Amino acid sequence: MWTNRQLILIFIKPLWLLNLASSAISIWFISINGWPNALNTLLIKFLGYGAAVLYQAYFYKSVYFYYRNAGVSVKKMYLYSFSLDFVLYGFIVLAYYLISK
After folding, report:
1. Which of 12, 39, 73, 100 has the most crowded Cβ, counting Cβ within 10 A?
2. 39 has a pLDDT exceeding 60
3. Exposed, middle or buried: residue 53 (CB in 10 Å: 0-12, 13-18, 19+)?
4. Count H helices, E strands: the chain?
5. Are the CB atoms for 34 and 26 separated by under 8 Å?
6. Cα distance between residue 55 and residue 41, in whole Å
7. Which helix (H) or strand (E) holds 33?
8. Taking the model in full, what pTM does it have?
9. Whole-angstrom Cα distance, residue 97 to residue 91?
10. How many CA atoms within 13 Å lie on the side-chain side of 17?
11. Using CB atoms within 10 A of its CB, is residue 5 exposed (0-12), middle (13-18) or buried (19+)?
């Protein structure tokens, strides 16, 4: 993973706004409905990931060849970018939990 971190940053660039929006909507959902419904925000995050994949596939389909030629699987790039986003989302939720207490 760390040998391709520059490629991961390039891959994430068009997706970060969608991921940030789904994180913001999830935090807003927690603030409105409370912590007992916090697991429902995972559905929002997964819908955001699906929207990001559809966005990338529709607008940046030719970019996939760049990653294949670099020797990196596009599935791995999605896995790396979404796992990084999910870890950041976990930190955001933890920070919100600590601030709201």
Report:
1. 12
2. yes
3. middle
4. 5, 0
5. no
6. 21
7. helix 16-33
8. 0.83
9. 10
10. 4
11. exposed
